[in-house]
C-alpha cells in the first residue's frame, strides 16, 4: 500500500491519557493477555506451604502499554495515493522510539479511501519488539522478494504444512516471515481466506494475505531524522515457539515429500543446529594456506553476492574506493566459514600469509581482481573491482553460518543475509535510477478541440512534448478545408479556433501572425507549449519500475539540483548544494560522504530562501566536481544540475 511516499503533516505529542487509551484499544483488538497479579509470597512459618519458586519478572499492564506505544509518542495525519487510479488514502500514524532506536512509525490507521477500516495496524518495527502480537505465517525467500515489491501473498506461497495458526482467520491481521529468517516478521497484511482452516496448500489458488505494509516500503523508510529505514535483524527472541513448530513440520517430511517441494521451500536445511555447533567446537586449527584460501573465497563470495543482488546498479552497489577496514568488515568477515567462537580465532588477517590488510589488497591486485592505490605512501585502498572475472562469474556459493546458530555458540558472527544487507548507515539513494519527465496538462482553451476532456486526476491527462506534437498533427490533418499549404507543408493557415484560442495575446508576434493568417508548423507548436495558459507545465520523477500511473505529476518546471560557489571572508571559497530532497537524496548522508571524499568540513542547514525542510549541504573549498560526481552516483544526471559560480569577478 505504501509504495508511494506519504505526506505526513506536523507531528504532535500524544497526551498520556490518549496514549493509554490507544494502547488499551490495541490490547483489546489483538486479544493481548494481561498476566494476573502475582500471588502473595507464602509465609515461611506455614509448613504446609510449598517452597516458593524463584521470582520472575512478569509484564504488567504498564509495561505492555509502553512496549506497544512507548512514552512520548507522537501522532500525525498522513495522505498518500494507491492503485493505478491514484486514489487518495488518509489516516493517522503514531511515531515512537524504542530503547535502542530512533523515531519510527510504530502504528498506522487507515481512515479514508480504499481499505479504510479504522483499525490500528502495527509496522514491522512494532513486531520486532512485541513477539506473538500477530499470527505468524511463513513463505520462501523467493516469494518474500515479491512481497517486498508490493505483491500479495498467494495461497500456494504459504510454506510448511498445516495446521496454520488458529488466529489466522479471514479478516485478521497477520505477519509473514521468510524461511531464511523465520523469527523475523517482514510483512503485515490481512487474511483474505480462513488460513487456519486450510488442510493443504498444494494445488490451491487465490489470495491468502493482502499486504498493507512491509520492510522496504515508505512507512518503513520514514524517519524524523531523515535516516534510511532500519534493516531487519537476523534473529529475534520470542518468536522461537512458533518456529519450533515449523522446524518439526519440516523435520517430519519424508525424503519423497521433500523432493516434491521447490528448492526455495528447503532453505531451512541450511540452518545450523545447536548440535552442529557443538560438534565443531573441537576442530583442528586450519593451515595458513587454508586460511588464505578462505579469505580469497570470501572476497569472491562478496563480489558474487553483490552482483546477484544489484545487477543494474553502478558497481553493483559497491561504494568505491573501498577502505581497508571496510574490506575486512563488509566483504570478508561475513563470508568466512566461522561456525563457532573457536573458529573465529583462526580466521583472522594476522594468521594469513599476508599478515596485514595492505599486503592482502596487493595480492588481490596481483591476481587482477582489484585495482589498488597507495594514498600518501601509507593506506592502500581499492579503486576498482573486476566483477567480470571468471572466478566471480563462475563462483559456487557455499554454506554460511546462521545468526541463530552463532548466537547459541556464544558469539555473534554476521551471516550471509546480514552481509548482503546494506549497513545501517548506508545511503539508499546511491545507485538509484531516476527519470525526470517534463509534462503538459491542457487547459480549458484547448479542450476538447486538441485534447480530450478528462478528469483532473486522470494520468492520461498529462502529455509529453512528443504527445503534444502528435496531437497537433492529428488536428491539422483532420481539418476541412485543409490547413496545410499545398506549396509548403510546413506552412499552416489559421482557422477560427487557432485565431481565437491560441494567438490571443497583444504581443507583436501574435498580431503579426493574425495579420498574415499563416504560421509555420514548428512556430505553432512552440507557441502552444510555451504558453502556460494553454498547456500548464508539470513534471514527474520516476524511479526504477515506476510509471506515470504510479506517481502523481507536480505542477511547475522540472526541478534541478543547484550547486553554488561562494566566496566567504577573504579568499575562502565554499560550495553549497540544494534541491536534494526532490531526488530522494538525504542531505546528512551526502554530507558525510563529501566530508570523507573531499577531506573537508561539511555542514547541513536550512536553505536560505527555501521552504521549511529544504536543506543545503555546505562544503569547504571548490568541490563542484566532487558534488557532481556524488549526485550522478545517486541517479541525478548532469542536465539536472545547475552550477552557479558567484566567485567570479564582475566585469
From TrEMBL:
Domain SUI1: residue ranges: 561-635
GO biological process entries: formation of translation preinitiation complex
SUPFAM superfamilies per the UniProt record, alphabetical: eIF1-like, PUA domain-like
Region ranges (Disordered): 38-61
InterPro entries reported for this sequence: EIF2D (IPR039757), eIF2D_SUI1 (IPR039759), PUA-like_sf (IPR015947), PUA_eIF2d-like (IPR048248), SUI1 (IPR001950), SUI1_dom_sf (IPR036877), WH_eIF2D (IPR057429)
Pfam families linked: PUA_elF2D (PF26292), SUI1 (PF01253), WHD_eIF2D (PF25304)
GO molecular function annotation: translation initiation factor activity
Name of the protein described by the UniProt record: SUI1 domain-containing protein
Amino acid at each position: 500500500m505504501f509504495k508511494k511516499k506519504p505526506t505526513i503533516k506536523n507531528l504532535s505529542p500524544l497526551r498520556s491519557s490518549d496514549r493509554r487509551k490507544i494502547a488499551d484499544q490495541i490490547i483489546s483488538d489483538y486479544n493481548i493477555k494481561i498476566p494476573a497479579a502475582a500471588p502473595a509470597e507464602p509465609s515461611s512459618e506455614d509448613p504446609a506451604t510449598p517452597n516458593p519458586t524463584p521470582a520472575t519478572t512478569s509484564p504488567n499492564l504498564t509495561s505492555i502499554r509502553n512496549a506497544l506505544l512507548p512514552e512520548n509518542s507522537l501522532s500525525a495525519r498522513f495522505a498518500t495515493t494507491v492503485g493505478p487510479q491514484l486514489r487518495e488514502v488518509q489516516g493517522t500514524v503514531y511515531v515512537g522510539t524504542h530503547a535502542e532506536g530512533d523515531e519510527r512509525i510504530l502504528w498506522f490507521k487507515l481512515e479514508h479511501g480504499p481499505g479504510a477500516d479504522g483499525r490500528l495496524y502495527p509496522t514491522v518495527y512494532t513486531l520486532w519488539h512485541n513477539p506473538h502480537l500477530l499470527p505468524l505465517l511463513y513463505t520462501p525467500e523467493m516469494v518474500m522478494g515479491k512481497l517486498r515489491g508490493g505483491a500479495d501473498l498467494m495461497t500456494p506461497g504459504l510454506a510448511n504444512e498445516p495446521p496454520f495458526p488458529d488466529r489466522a482467520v479471514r479478516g485478521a491481521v497477520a505477519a509473514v516471515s521468510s524461511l531464511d529468517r523465520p523469527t523475523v516478521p517482514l510483512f503485515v497484511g490481512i487474511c483474505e481466506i480462513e488460513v487456519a482452516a486450510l488442510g493443504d496448500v498444494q494445488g490451491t489458488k487465490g489470495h491468502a494475505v493482502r499486504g498493507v505494509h512491509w520492510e522496504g516500503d515508505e512507512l518503513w523508510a520514514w524517519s524524523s531524522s531523515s535516516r534510511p529505514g532500519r534493516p531487519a535483524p537476523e534473529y529475534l527472541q520470542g518468536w522461537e515457539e512458533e518456529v519450533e513448530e515449523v522446524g518439526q513440520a519440516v523435520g517430519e517430511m519424508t525424503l519423497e515429500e521433500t523432493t516434491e517441494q521447490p528448492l526455495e521451500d528447503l532453505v531451512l536445511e541450511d540452518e545450523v543446529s545447536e548440535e552442529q555447533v557443538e560438534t565443531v567446537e573441537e576442530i583442528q586449527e586450519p593451515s595458513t594456506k587454508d586460511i588464505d584460501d578462505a579469505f580469497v573465497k570470501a572476497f569472491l563470495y562478496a563480489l558474487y553476492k553483490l552482483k546477484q543482488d544489484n545487477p543494474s546498479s553502478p558497481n553493483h552497489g559497491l561504494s568505491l574506493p573501498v577502505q581497508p577496514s571496510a574490506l575486512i568488515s563488509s566483504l570478508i568477515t561475513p563470508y568466512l566459514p566461522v561456525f563457532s567462537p573457536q573458529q573465529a580465532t583462526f580466521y583472522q588477517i594476522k594468521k594469513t600469509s599476508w599478515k596485514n590488510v595492505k599486503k592482502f589488497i596487493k595480492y588481490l591486485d596481483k591476481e587482477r581482481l582489484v585495482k589498488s592505490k597507495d594514498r600518501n605512501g601509507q593506506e592502500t585502498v581499492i579503486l576498482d573491482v573486476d566483477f567480470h572475472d571468471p572466478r566471480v562469474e563462475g563462483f559456487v556459493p557455499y554454506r554460511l553460518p546462521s545468526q541463530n546458530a552463532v548466537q547459541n555458540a556464544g558469539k555473534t558472527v554476521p551471516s550471509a543475509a546480514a552481509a548482503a544487507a546494506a549497513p545501517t548507515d548506508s545511503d539508499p539513494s546511491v545507485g538509484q535510477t531516476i527519470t525526470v519527465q517534463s509534462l503538459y496538462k491542457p487547459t480549458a482553451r484547448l479542450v476538447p478541440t486538441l485534447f480530450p476532456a478528462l478528469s483532473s486526476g486522470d494520468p492520461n491527462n498529462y502529455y509529453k512534448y512528443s504527445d503534444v506534437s502528435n496531437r497537433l498533427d492529428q488536428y491539422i490533418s483532420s481539418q476541412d478545408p485543409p490547413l496545410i499549404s499545398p506549396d509548403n507543408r510546413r506552412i499552416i493557415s489559421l482557422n477560427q479556433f487557432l485565431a481565437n484560442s491560441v494567438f490571443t495575446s497583444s504581443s507583436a508576434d501574435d498580431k503579426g501572425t493574425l495579420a498574415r493568417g499563416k504560421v509555420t508548423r514548428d512556430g505553432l507548436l512552440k507557441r502552444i507549449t510555451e504558453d502556460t495558459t494553454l498547456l500548464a507545465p508539470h513534471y514527474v520523477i520516476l524511479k526504477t519500475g515506476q510509471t506515470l500511473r504510479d506517481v502523481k505529476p507536480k505542477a511547475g518546471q522540472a526541478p534541478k539540483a543547484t550547486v553554488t560557489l561562494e566566496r566567504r571572508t577573504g579568499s575562502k571559497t565554499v560550495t553549497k548544494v540544494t534541491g536534494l530532497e526532490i531526488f530522494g537524496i538525504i542531505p546528512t548522508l551526502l554530507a558525510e560522504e563529501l566530508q570523507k571524499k573531499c577531506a573537508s568540513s561539511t555542514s547541513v542547514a536550512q536553505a536560505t530562501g527555501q521552504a521549511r525542510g529544504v536543506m543545503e549541504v555546505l562544503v569547504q573549498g571548490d568541490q563542484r566536481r566532487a558534488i557532481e560526481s556524488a549526485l550522478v552516483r545517486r541517479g541525478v544526471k548532469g542536465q539536472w544540475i545547475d552550477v552557479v559560480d558567484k566567485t567570479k569577478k564582475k566585469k
